[in-house]
Fold:
Amino acid sequence: MSNLSVYSDSHFMKQAYNEALKAYENGEVPVGAVIVCNNTIIARGYNQTEALTDVTAHAEIIVITSANSFLGSKYLTDCTLYVTLEPCVMCAGALKWAQMSRVVYGASDDKGGFMKYGKELLHPQTKLEFGIMNDECSSLLKKFFKERR
Structure:
């Protein structure tokens, strides 16, 4: 399948990136996410910690909750999460308990990302991929924080 396919990782990461742009426009740390099941986006979201005054309102948590509701299940065993930034430890824990099949993230997070603790924070069956649209995702985050300094 080419990268131009509607079912490609690039296509779905672009959808997550569009969610990150919404966060940016709303003054939130620009992280966006989508959850895909059977090549269909079943949940979309972006960081809303400021809007909801809730430190747990990360894009990943929002889309997990939405996908659970859509599927009527607490498990997301046939789903892929696309997120523009490497999940934090809290979100990795939620992904583990949701039994997410696959996680694809754009930019790495050397300070707050879960990978410094190891892939073991995810469910043992979860496949992990990263670096899709890394430059775009990183640039948006850098732009956001530069404007706030």
User: Anything to note?
Assistant: Helices lie at 9-25, 59-71, 89-98, 134-148. The two ends are 42 Å apart (CA to CA). The longest helix spans residues 9-25.
